[in-house]
TrEMBL record:
InterPro entries cross-referenced by the UniProt entry: NADH_UbQ/plastoQ_OxRdtase_su3, NDAH_ubi_oxred_su3_sf
GO MF annotation, one: NADH dehydrogenase (ubiquinone) activity
UniProt name for this protein: NADH-ubiquinone oxidoreductase chain 3
A Gene Ontology cellular-component term: mitochondrial membrane
Length: 116
C-alpha cells in the first residue's frame, strides 16, 4: 500500500512540475501574424464557419459504431471457456445481426451515398 501511495505522489508531482514548466517556459511574444486567424499570411477567402456535412457525420458515427462492435466482440474467444458457451455465441450473434440490419437499413435509405 505504501508503494502505491509513493507512486501516486511521484506521478502527481511530476505532472504538476511538467505542467508548470510548459506554462512558464515558452516565450509569448505575439505579433501581427500570430494574432491573425491564419498563420500562413493569406487572407481568408470565405467564412471559416462552413456548415457541417450530415453525410460525413453519419459515416463517422457508423465507423465509431462498428469500431465499438469490434471492441465488444474482442473478448469472444475467451467466452467459449465459460460453463455455457452457447449463451456467449447467441449474444454475439444478436449484436452482429442487429448491426447488420442497421447497416442494411442505412444503405437502403441512401444514407451512405456521398453524392446526391
Amino acid at each position: 500500500m505504501k508503494l502505491i501511495i509513493i507512486i501516486l505522489f511521484i506521478t502527481m508531482a511530476l505532472s504538476l512540475i511538467l505542467a508548470f514548466i510548459s506554462f512558464w517556459l515558452p516565450q509569448m511574444n505575439p505579433d501581427a501574424e500570430k494574432l491573425s486567424p491564419y498563420e500562413c499570411g493569406f487572407d481568408p477567402l470565405g467564412s471559416a464557419r462552413l456548415p457541417f456535412s450530415m453525410r460525413f457525420f453519419l459515416v463517422a458515427i457508423l465507423f465509431l459504431l462498428f469500431d465499438l462492435e469490434i471492441a465488444l466482440l474482442l473478448p469472444l474467444p475467451w467466452g467459449d471457456q465459460l460453463h455455457n458457451p452457447t449463451n456467449t455465441f447467441l449474444w454475439a450473434m444478436a449484436v452482429l445481426i442487429l448491426l447488420t440490419l442497421g447497416l442494411i437499413y442505412e444503405w437502403a435509405q441512401g444514407g451512405l451515398e456521398w453524392a446526391e
